[in-house]
Here is the input.
Amino acid sequence: MDKKIEELLEKKAKAQLGGGESKIKAQHDKGKLTARERIELLVDEGSFEEIDIFVKHRAVDFGLDKQHYPGDGVVTGFAKIDGRPIALFSQDFTVFGGSLSEAHAEKIVKVMNMAMKVGIPVIGLNDSGGARIQEGVSSLGGYADIFLLNTLASGVIPQISVILGPCAGGAVYSPAITDFVFMAKNTSYMFVTGPNVVKTVTHEDVSFEDLGGAETHAMKSGVAHFIYDNEIETLLNVRKLLSYVPLNFMDKSPIKKFDKSLVKNQEELNSIVPDNPNKPYNMKEIISLLVDDNEFLEVHSNYAENIIVGFARVGGMAVGIVANQPEVLAGVLDINASVKGARFVRFCDAFNIPLLVLVDVPGFLPGTEQEWNGIIRHGAKLLFAFCEATVPKVTVITRKAYGGAYDVMNSKHIRGDFNFAWPSAEIAVMGPKGAVEIIFKKEISSAKDPEKELEKKLTSYVEKFANPYIAAERGYIDDVIVPAETKIKLINAFEMLKNKVDKNPKKKHDNIPL
Ligand code: HXC
Here is the structure.
């Protein structure tokens, strides 16, 4: 028996080396970690239980029958993060460039299926040259099996993709279906076709980094939700994200201990919004004051910065925050902001994460560029997402809430549970100047002094509409609150809503305007 155990341990030790010492060195020389080193950084120490370490590919063409590496280029198994279970796969670039064979795909499918059965998140660490070219269509089939499972698992368990190397061809579509994409700067790439094909087809000269690097996807395409300077920071932030997220759609986010009696009035909040309604301010200052320990994990921080989305805790309870950012484009809703907001709201709703919505929005962005590219269709996504969300939903209007954007940003009318406004709130169909120029057009143009008449009408409009009280009189606003007291109001609201149950009508699935 001892000999057999020895043999087993030898086999396992060999498998640990993946493609071998020289390939590991090459990986390190590129500034990348190995598949196993990454797992060590990601999960709780000693918690990783590997499966399928002995799996081999079954290909025979192109000399593959003579090249076998136990595990076949992907390390799979189960582990814990902060004591909570997860499933994972980590592609091993040292074995055939981490390329995906039929057997490699089967290993991923196996952990995904198990994760769905037991209701735990799946984290995929991607570092792969794509379909294993020598296996042809079997490899394509393997990808399709993964795409299908990604889709079936969507909304059942959280799925997180971490891109830590090349990710090319159809291979990008698995991460794209998952809930969050992390990338590390300078070593990870995602594109449908690489720079060489781009050059042939469109004659563009573009580098790997510019075409599909982390910054490109964080700022331009919005494909990456989180990017960090290196792999270590990237992996540690995956752990952070998971601390806000439930294990599955029937679970709730972990609650942290919180002593409510320590919450004090925050006088700073009374003076953040400038008296001049046209002056910008930074909504992130408000967020930072309202959340526990000033900790806010922002999602898509470099994309469509006119809307802010991310996770935090309020009174120990995890919440998803959606907020307009008056400092960027006056917080207007445009196509990218709408899509960014909608996807985030739907994730939170799918996984029982309550929503906190901070509103200072002048409306939707006008112009041909936006109209021709479909602001109607895309803006409708955000509206749809808020309308269908049944999680606890709390809104605070800090300043402007104009027009359709007032309705969209989790208004009472679309099932906001608690809708608060600060005294600085202005809730109306449109901003004062535009409104007065339309409704008093004739009176202004026929007045002896049109400028003076415009001023007069503006003053009366502002007095009448640029405040929260008309909405509060109708019950569209539940309370107008002193900004300094917002934090305690929020904690009380989310506590009250803890066991909220709301349902949408029975259907096969909805038809969000994609
Ligand atoms: C088999 C592969 C491979 C692949 C890389 N390798 N990609 N083997 N199938 N797809 C092997 C290489 O032969 C090499 O083996 C080792 O991995 C390391 O690769 P290098 O090229 O030396 O590394 P590097 O210079 O870092 O370049 C990495 C790379 C490049 C950018 C990923 O290898 C590359 O362009 N590969 C092909 C990418 C690709 O076109 N894939 C198919 C996409 S289509 P040795 O033994 O020499 O060390 C696709 C379809 C999916 O994926 C469709 C789903 C619907």
